[in-house]
Design brief:
- The chain contains 2 helices and 4 strands.
- It has one domain (25-88): Nuclear Transport Factor 2, Chain: A (Roll), CATH 3.10.450.
- With 89 residues, the chain is of the alpha+beta class.
- The relative contact order is 0.17.
- It has a 4-stranded antiparallel beta sheet, covered by helices on one side.
Length: 89
């Protein structure tokens, strides 16, 4: 029983680490993640950011809450820093 449990844990760890290795990464010349968060807050009115990640399509994608208490999704151009999308989740 212990051997099966150990094998399951090792297999799960291998799958999770492989997924992390395949995650999208910011491209060359992109604004930093900190700048993208600042842009979401100052230009789009977010008061709290829950999630933000790089996307292979050339933008930062995330979600957060605005002062109305509603959760919104946003996209910020990775190179220019312009807000491309801002809509309710």
């Amino acid at each position: 029983m212990l051997k099966k449990t150990l094998v399951a844990i090792v297999a799960t760890s291998a799958l999770l680490s492989a997924g992390a290795a395949l995650a999208d990464k910011p491209g060359a010349g992109w604004i930093t993640i900190e700048k993208a968060i600042e842009t979401a807050k100052t230009k789009a009115g977010y008061i709290e950011i829950y999630k933000i990640e790089a996307d292979n399509d050339g933008y930062w994608e995330g979600e957060g809450r605005k002062s109305d208490g509603i959760v919104y999704e946003f996209r910020i151009d990775g190179a220019s820093g312009n807000v491309l999308r801002d809509q309710k989740d």
